[in-house]
């Protein structure tokens, strides 16, 4: 610790602090334009000049100068104020004074400082810049005339996002922030640059001219796309969510968001939202009153209850709040006496609800998000961890670049994570993950690298015996990696002081189920890398509340039908009533033909959704519900973080929250009084679900809480499913596109601007062999059907492997993929 | 007792030889002072409203009678797609004119604002445009 004096105040700070950090700790504000707490110090703007007595009154930048013992710092002398005024005058020399039409006005650092330092005139004169404004990309407007060269955009894009879209170009007075060949911006559009821009040089196009900063009501909430659980601030005006607002003090991610989080909010006030209940009359869905629609549902459910509850089933989306999911489960368990409840097609949660449950004794990951940066070695299964959870991808980027974490990626294709410094990507044949992970475990046992605690864990001998079949030499050929590479990876993993395994889950990854989760768990348990900081296995649930759905038992827990069985039941008549809350099986579950046939056949289909989705169009009753911005509740995210969502706007149209609907139906069926509000339900969750014990809604506050994990380790030997190869065909792997999450992001304008339709991605050699170019349509044919998709040619795919995202309703990839980890397809023009 | 009465009558009598104060409105028109704060007008320059929809007038308005919605024109510039003043709420304080950074708003000498229907008191952009 170092002691120093700032403006006559004694401050004690760590020795790696800068004067700026020390002043902040002492509550003294030093003005800055180019500094950001997430980025390396830059020292470019000269606003933070301070005087240090020991340096003979010289003015030095506070943001780049480390503290020394006994330093005496003055932050506000007349000379400093003069110097800062001059800095502002020089900046305003070129900066256009177009505050009336600039969206940054009100939230502009330059404007605020100009006001604060009373810069009313300018001693200098010059012409303004005449740079061309980039209107060409759909999401980020770049007006380099307003730029003050703080370099934050270039630095955040490089340091945190690791994309590197910007850099300074040209010299002297002509210097500006430029893109590749100074063309229009073409990046992954996470908008991090927009969020840190201190002026209006970078602004969000979807929000352009929509409202002024000071007119927005700022409501803190949690993003409703992926499972990362990013906190965000919604900018609300006149009961409309107009934008998301950057707050660098929010969450583990310091306000960082991805494309969908930052630019995908438009689904909330979309024109396509359902505003009134619909009831099927004479074959078509007609608007109806709530009494009529709910009356029909309640009558049918009462009938089902009397019939014993065996013929009713429910599929709920893990996008609902914990309270709603709890009520959904309770409606079936207590209200109807049925256990036919599931979510995420049954397999996208199996890694947690079956895999982790058996291997670690609980449905949660034995690691948290904080462990990513605390680790020494990250073993990431699939480069898609970046696509499914971009903000966790930023954490990985930061870990690798700042903390020198050794990144190893096991994947069937390369990806953005492969490009990180020193990252090693082991590109294996599709669907071979389990065999490969078993081989790693085998090497650890064969070379005696296991932890001393491993032999004491249940199932050790059985595992040891079973793993003999997975010696690297035996599986190398099938995996497409050589035995030595596998051995080196196993040794590096075992020898790392702290190592964390990351496994993304989701509807696009049918192979990431129970078996893979357990194979990875075995690996972590063998090496004793569980339950310690920077160690463990982090299962990344796909949706915002996937972890909550697993915790609250939203899957058959007493021998009921799972998603697959429910849909089969609809087909064969054993399920007569199906309630679908927010799920869109027609597009997101495997085998579209089968699902459509099942939903067409079921006697009574109730769909609760925001939109008239492909599934809702088949329903007998459609109930319009509220988005996350219209309700209160909690979400549980990756790494067991429970956080509150807060209502920002009134429900759109006549929509009611799933909570209100389920609460009413439950009370009607059981005859008990309905719950008063979400707090009452959360209290019941805290009382009945062990992991949530002791939590209260009020106690969660703005930051939320991390659920405790009790680990009861057990080895479960898993067999690798054989992947039948078909020669002459391409291996199609499905997954998530970076800009989308599930099927809801299709209703957010931002993601649709950058990625409007499905595609099939293949490597250059394959494209050349097929004689197709980027953007051309090809016919992709599997045993289940055929599909016309546009071609995307990329360097990341290995030869013979093609990738297609699953989010899109038209030409949906589930019409050719039926739930196998790998689908063999032929591609023709 | 009688004297005050006579004094009063004297004033009345004297007024009979003075120019009458009463204005025979509407036949006679009053002289409106130049800085009178009457109906607002949006100034026009180069055949379009000067207003850039900066929202400062609705922000400063103490009566909350101004509604602005910005739009983006073909040249990507900001303009007021909607500009309305609810004269039933307006207190004619003139803060909006003072706040305007581009001198796009003025208050005219127009004071005859009576109307038959409430909705007619809401002046939309077309009605507010300066008449030349």
From TrEMBL, chain A:
Domain 4Fe-4S His(Cys)3-ligated-type per the UniProt entry, residue ranges: 79-118
The protein's name: Molybdopterin-dependent oxidoreductase
Species name: Geomobilimonas luticola
Entries under InterPro entries matching the protein: 2Fe-2S_ferredoxin-like_sf, 2Fe-2S_ferredoxin-type, 4Fe4S_Fe-S-bd, 4Fe4S_Fe_S_CS, Asp_de-COase-like_dom_sf, MoPterin_dinucl-bd_dom, Mopterin_OxRdtase, Mopterin_OxRdtase_4Fe-4S_dom
Every 2Fe-2S ferredoxin-type domain range: 1-79
Presence of keyword 4Fe-4S: yes
Entry keyword set: 2Fe-2S, 4Fe-4S, Iron, Iron-sulfur, Metal-binding, Oxidoreductase
SMART domains membership: Molybdop_Fe4S4 (SM00926), NADH-G_4Fe-4S_3 (SM00929)
Residues in 4Fe-4S ferredoxin-type domain copies: 138-166, 177-207
Domain 4Fe-4S Mo/W bis-MGD-type: 216-272
Pfam families in UniProt: Fer2_4 (PF13510), Fer4_Nqo3 (PF22117), Molybdop_Fe4S4 (PF04879), Molybdopterin (PF00384), Molydop_binding (PF01568), NADH-G_4Fe-4S_3 (PF10588)
TrEMBL record, chain B:
SUPFAM superfamilies per the UniProt record, alphabetical: 4Fe-4S ferredoxins (SSF54862)
UniProt-recorded Gene Ontology molecular function terms: oxidoreductase activity
Keywords: 4Fe-4S, Cell membrane, Iron, Iron-sulfur, Membrane, Metal-binding, NAD, Oxidoreductase, Quinone, Repeat, Translocase, Ubiquinone
Cofactor(s), by name: [4Fe-4S] cluster
Ligand binding ([4Fe-4S] cluster 1): 51, 54, 57, 100
PROSITE patterns (UniProt xref): 4FE4S_FER_1, 4FE4S_FER_2
EC number: 7.1.1.-
Protein topology in the membrane: Peripheral membrane protein
Localisation per UniProt entry: Cell membrane
Catalysed transformations (reactions): a quinone + NADH + 5 H(+)(in) = a quinol + NAD(+) + 4 H(+)(out)
Pfam families: Fer4
Binding site for [4Fe-4S] cluster 2: 61, 90, 93, 96
Record-annotated 4Fe-4S ferredoxin-type domain positions: 42-71, 81-110
Cited function: NDH-1 shuttles electrons from NADH, via FMN and iron-sulfur (Fe-S) centers, to quinones in the respiratory chain. The immediate electron acceptor for the enzyme in this species is believed to be ubiquinone. Couples the redox reaction to proton translocation (for every two electrons transferred, four hydrogen ions are translocated across the cytoplasmic membrane), and thus conserves the redox energy in a proton gradient.
Family label: Belongs to the complex I 23 kDa subunit family.
Entry protein name: NADH-quinone oxidoreductase subunit I
Source organism: Geomobilimonas luticola
């Amino acid at each position: 610790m170092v002691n120093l004096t700032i403006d006559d105040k004694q401050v004690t700070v760590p020795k790696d602090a800068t004067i700026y950090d020390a002043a902040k700790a002492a509550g003294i504000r030093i003005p800055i334009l180019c500094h950001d707490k997430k980025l390396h110090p830059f020292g470019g703007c000269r606003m933070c000049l301070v005087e240090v007595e020991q340096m003979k009154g010289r003015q030095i930048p506070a943001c780049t100068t480390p503290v020394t013992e006994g330093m005496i710092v003055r932050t506000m002398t007349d000379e400093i104020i003069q110097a800062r005024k001059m800095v502002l005058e020089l900046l305003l020399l070129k900066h256009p004074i177009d505050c009336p039409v600039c969206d940054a006005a009100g939230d502009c650092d330059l404007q605020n400082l100009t006001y604060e330092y009373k810069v009313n005139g300018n001693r200098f004169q010059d012409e303004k810049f005449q740079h061309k404004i980039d209107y060409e990309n759909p999401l980020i407007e770049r007006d380099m005339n307003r730029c003050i060269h703080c370099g934050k955009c270039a630095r955040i894009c490089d340091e945190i996002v690791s994309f590197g879209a910007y850099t300074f170009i040209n010299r002297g007075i002509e210097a500006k922030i430029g893109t590749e060949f100074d063309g229009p911006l073409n990046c992954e559009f996470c908008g991090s640059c927009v969020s840190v821009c201190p002026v209006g040089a970078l602004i969000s196009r979807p929000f352009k001219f929509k409202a002024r900063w000071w007119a927005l009501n700022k409501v803190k909430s949690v993003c409703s796309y992926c499972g990362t659980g990013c906190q965000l601030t919604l900018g609300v005006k006149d009961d409309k969510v107009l934008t998301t607002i950057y707050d660098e003090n929010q969450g583990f991610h310091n306000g960082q968001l991805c494309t969908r989080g930052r630019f995908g909010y438009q689904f909330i006030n979309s024109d396509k939202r359902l505003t009134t209940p619909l009831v099927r009359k004479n074959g078509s869905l007609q608007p109806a009153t709530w009494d009529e629609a709910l009356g029909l549902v309640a009558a049918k459910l009462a009938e089902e209850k009397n019939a014993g509850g065996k013929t009713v089933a429910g599929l709920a989306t893990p996008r609902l709040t914990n309270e709603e999911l709890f009520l959904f489960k309770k409606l079936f368990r207590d209200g109807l006496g049925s256990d036919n409840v599931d979510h995420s097609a049954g397999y996208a949660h199996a890694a947690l609800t079956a895999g982790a449950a058996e291997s670690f004794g609980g449905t949660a990951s034995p690691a948290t998000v904080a462990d990513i940066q605390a680790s020494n070695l990250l073993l990431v299964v699939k480069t898609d961890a970046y696509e499914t959870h971009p903000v966790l991808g930023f954490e990985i980027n930061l870990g690798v670049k700042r903390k020198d974490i050794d990144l190893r990626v096991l994947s069937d294709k390369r990806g953005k994570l492969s490009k990180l410094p020193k990252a090693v990507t082991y590109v294996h044949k599709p669907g071979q993950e389990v065999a490969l992970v078993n081989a790693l475990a085998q090497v650890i046992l064969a070379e005696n690298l296991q932890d001393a605690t491993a032999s004491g864990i249940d199932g050790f001998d059985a595992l040891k015996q079973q793993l003999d079949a997975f010696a690297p030499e035996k599986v190398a050929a099938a995996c497409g990696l050589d035995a030595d590479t596998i051995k080196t990876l196993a040794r590096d993993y075992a020898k790392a002081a702290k190592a964390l395994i990351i496994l993304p889950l989701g509807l696009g990854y049918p192979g990431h189920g129970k078996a893979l989760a357990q194979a990875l768990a075995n690996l972590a348990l063998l090496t004793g890398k569980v339950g310690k900081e920077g160690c463990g296995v982090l299962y990344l649930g796909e949706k915002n509340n996937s972890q909550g759905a697993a915790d609250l038992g939203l899957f058959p827990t007493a021998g009921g039908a799972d998603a697959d069985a429910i849909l089969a039941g609809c087909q064969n008549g054993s399920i007569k009533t199906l309630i679908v809350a927010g799920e869109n099986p027609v597009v997101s579950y495997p085998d579209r033909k089968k699902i459509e046939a099942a939903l067409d056949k079921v006697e009574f289909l109730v769909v609760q959704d925001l939109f008239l989705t492909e599934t809702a169009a088949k329903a007998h009753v459609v109930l319009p519900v509220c988005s996350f911005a219209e309700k209160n509740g909690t979400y549980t995210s990756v790494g067991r973080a429970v956080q509150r969502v807060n209502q920002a706007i009134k429900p759109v149209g006549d929509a009611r929250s799933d909570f209100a609907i389920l609460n009413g139906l439950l009370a009607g069926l059981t005859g008990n009084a309905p719950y008063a509000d979400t707090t009452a339900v959360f209290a019941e969750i805290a009382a009945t679900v062990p992991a949530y014990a002791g939590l209260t809604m009020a106690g969660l506050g703005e930051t939320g809480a991390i659920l405790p994990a009790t680990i009861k380790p057990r080895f479960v030997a898993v067999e690798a499913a054989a992947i039948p190869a078909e020669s002459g065909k391409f291996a199609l792997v499905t997954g998530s596109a970076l800009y989308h999450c599930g099927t809801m992001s299709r209703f957010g304008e931002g993601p649709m601007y950058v990625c409007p339709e499905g595609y099939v991605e293949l490597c250059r050699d394959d494209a050349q062999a097929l004689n197709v170019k980027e953007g051309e349509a090809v016919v992709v044919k599997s045993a289940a059907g055929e599909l016309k998709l546009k071609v995307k040619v990329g360097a990341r795919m290995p030869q013979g492997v093609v990738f297609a995202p699953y989010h899109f309703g038209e030409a949906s990839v589930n019409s050719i993929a039926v739930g196998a980890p790998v689908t063999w397809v032929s591609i023709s023009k | 007792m009688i004297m005050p009465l006579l004094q009063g009558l004297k004033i009345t009598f004297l007024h009979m030889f003075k120019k009458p104060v009463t204005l025979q409105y509407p036949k006679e028109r009053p002289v409106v002072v130049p800085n009178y704060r009457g109906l607002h007008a949006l100034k026009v320059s180069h055949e379009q409203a000067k207003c850039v929809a900066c929202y400062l007038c609705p922000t400063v308005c103490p009566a909350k009678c101004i509604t602005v919605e910005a739009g983006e024109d073909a040249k990507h510039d900001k303009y007021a797609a909607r500009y309305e003043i609810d004269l039933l709420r307006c207190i004619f304080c003139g803060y909006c004119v003072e706040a305007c950074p581009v001198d796009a708003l003025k208050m005219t000498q127009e004071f005859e604002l009576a109307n038959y229907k409430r909705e007619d008191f809401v002046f939309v952009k077309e009605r507010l445009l300066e008449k030349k």
